[in-house]
TrEMBL record:
This is Cell division ATP-binding protein FtsE. One of its GO terms (cellular component) is plasma membrane. The keyword Cell membrane applies. GO terms for biological process: cell division. Gene3D superfamilies: P-loop containing nucleotide triphosphate hydrolases. Belongs to the ABC transporter superfamily. The keyword Glycoprotein does not apply. Its main location: membrane. It is a peripheral membrane protein. InterPro entries: AAA+_ATPase, ABC_transporter-like_ATP-bd, ABC_transporter-like_CS, ABC_transpr_LolD-like, Cell_div_FtsE, P-loop_NTPase. It comes from Oceanobacillus indicireducens. PROSITE patterns: ABC_TRANSPORTER_1, ABC_TRANSPORTER_2. The gene is ftsE.
Length: 228
């Protein structure tokens, strides 16, 4: 569950990125965050995984009140949240297998357990046969699949994707959306910021539109709603 109550974020340079956000996202929902460039989408997302802190207001993630979360406990929160970026952010010198294994929290995992889990997620994203490849040897869509595998390897309850198809062609983006739907079907909450009218209007989900740091629209099975 993700709950925000009257959340404001002003950056140190004085830019007011969010100006009173109220939102309630239940476990298992699939939500698009839409809005013009600079509207506050990335800031909204960064507040969820504690990359940024709010200037004012309450944020509760999976029963954790972030205002009361001690710095040393932040890793516990991060374990519950997988993040996927537009530019993949893979480690270039590690293989596909190593990129995913590296992200796996190795608590109580035997080497065999690690191998089983990594191969399981690589199969889930359709990359089992590319385990030994380096990121540079993969297409953009395949690299994004590695980053999705890395995001889900710890079985987080929430997956956040900030413009995940921004660098991909439409056909590849479609495949990525199918993978996100499969992850969501298993009960994982999915939050995705996007500028893609085609995706939002094709794969119908809840749509939250942000303008100048406030939510101006929140619809179940909504439309993209902007001209592109
Ligand atoms: N670290 C930062 N320091 C100062 N200002 C920032 C910072 N990050 C974002 N901003 C400002 O906050 C506002 C909202 O930015 P944000 O990145 O959240 O928008 P966005 O909707 O994600 O945009 P885009 O679609 O272009 O990614 C913008 O005016 C931006 O310049």
């Amino acid at each position: 569950m993700i709950l925000m109550e009257d959340v404001y974020k002003t950056y140190p340079n004085g830019v007011a990125a969010l100006n009173g956000i109220n939102v309630d996202i239940k476990q298992g929902e699939f939500v698009y965050i839409v809005g013009h460039s600079g509207a506050g989408k990335s800031t909204f997302i960064k507040l969820i995984y504690r990359e940024e802190k709010p200037t004012k207001g309450n944020i509760i993630i999976n029963e954790i009140d972030l205002s009361k979360l001690k710095e040393r406990k932040v890793p516990y929160l991060r374990r519950e949240i997988g993040v996927v970026f537009q530019d993949f952010k893979l480690l270039p010198r590690l293989t596909v297998y190593e990129n995913v294994a590296y992200a796996l929290e190795v608590i109580e995992e035997t080497p065999k357990g690690i191998r089983t889990r990594v191969m399981e997620v690589l199969e889930e994203v359709g990359l089992k046969n590319k385990a030994r490849f380096l990121p540079a040897e993969l297409s953009g869509g395949e690299q994004q699949r590695v980053s999705i595998a890395r995001a889900i390897v710890n079985r987080p309850r929430i997956v956040i994707a900030d413009e995940p198809t921004g660098n991909l062609d439409p056909e590849t983006s479609w495949g990525i959306m199918k993978t996100f739907e499969e992850i969501n079907d298993k009960g994982t909450t999915l939050i995705m910021a996007t500028h893609s009218k085609e995706i939002v209007n094709t794969f119908k989900k809840r749509v939250i539109a942000i303008e100048d740091g406030v939510i101006v629209r929140d619809e179940q099975r909504g439309e993209y709603g902007y001209e592109v």
